[in-house]
Model the fold of this input.
Amino acid sequence: MTNNQEWWRGAVIYQVYPRSFFDSNNDGIGDLPGVTAKMDYIASLGVDAIWLSPFFTSPMKDFGYDVSDYCDVDPIFGDMSDFDALIESAHQHGLKVMIDQVLNHSSDQHPWFVESRSNHANAKADWYIWADANSDGTVPNNWLSVFGGPAWHWDSRRKQYYLHNFLDSQPDLNFHNPDVVDALLETVEFWLKRGVDGFRLDTANYYYHDVELRNNPPKEDVVEGSIGVRLDNPYAYQLHLYDKSRPENIGFLQRLRGLLDHYPNTTTVGEVGCDFALETMAAYTQGGDKLHMCYSFDLLTHDSSMTHIRNTMQTIEAGLGDGWPCWSIGNHDVERVATRWGNNHDPIAKSKIYMAMLLTLRGSVCLYQGEELGLPEAELEFDQLVDPFGIAFWPEFKGRDGCRTPLPWKNETLGGFTQNNQPWLPIAESQRALAVDVQDGNRDSVLHAYRDFLHVRRGHPELRFGDIEFLYNDDTTLTFLRSFQGKRLYVAINTSHQDKILPVEQTLTVLTLPEAIPSGYVDHHNTVVLPPYSVLLATVNT
Done:
């Protein structure tokens, strides 16, 4: 492993959802030894790091995002020796390892909450956010849960409400209590000492709440966007000024950064879901004393237009300063990008071109397992769902199970994921034809396109570190320059099924791309010609 304090800048991070990656012991659930067993595959992609979704001890009401022990491995995933083996294997393969830290809330089965709810006088009585009912017994204010309904749950032991931004089995911790902050930072340091290289911070803007519990105002313009923001969810109808993204959050992020600075070569990427996410991303990553990177949900919506992409990039660039973004177009919380942006039209070609777009934008990148295969969303019946979010909002919202089904390693009934006939989620038949073994043998596959393009990205520091200057866009076409240390790279993207012909002022030398990636060219009129779903990379001649 190289001693590079800023390895994360421009890095490509591969998100592993352990439950669905590979089942090593055939109990129907993926596990940490399963990740280790497939380390050769991950390294073959050409990524820089792995992000592991939660594997901590948990009752699994929200599949690991409800933690009951921050410093241990849940038995369904293995044990601490399995985690140590995973770290060792990843490092031997030249890969960094980042783990999910769920600091905003714990499980209601965490010993901290069990003690806190027992009475008003215990040592952890104010480790969570408790509030009395209104005089008529109603909830303390109008705050809503992302998962639907009030963000307050009545507890008969204390005869008070507690705050939960997500499930009522996920009570929010009280960051206004310094003992809580100290305890959480101790859990972070536990994993740093264990050898992790960084953290993905779940709901990183939710940590603090308004101590006055002021009501959120209504939102005038309700559009799809951040986590929970859909027209079928009442959460979308509030402007979330007081329940998250509070100014006190900055101080905690500075303390967290101070801790990581004691462990060289470590990093953080924060998940930011709020009504002004791009501004929050900038604020959280500026100055070199808070988070290293942030990502938002701005590219996780249904809007795949190049106009939206350009507007998002220019908005963040205008306020970013010395901050640094991280971008993703898919993860474990949203419909798979091949379905969300593919519209069932030439999904293989679209998977390749959206990959090329993502990997040429300025910032680091998170890739969700299965994107490199172009997997579509799995269609599940209601009785197959396990996600409480989907069960609550069915059928308008089918939940997150469709993007969490097991990864298909082989084109066979159980997808090579397990030998257990009852995996925790069904093996999607629609995905088996896109299995790893099938695509490995097809030089024109999405898998080879990802591997090839990641290799191209590694060879061009302009794409990893360079500035960005947008030149042209319409809804399906985007062109821009990436510049670094006196070198300029011209990038043109065509996401439509039609040829695009673009005038160009610069004199270009077109780069030859691997055969799995449809490429544009420059004709004898010095005009850029982009066939359907193609990308052109060219050095700008000085």
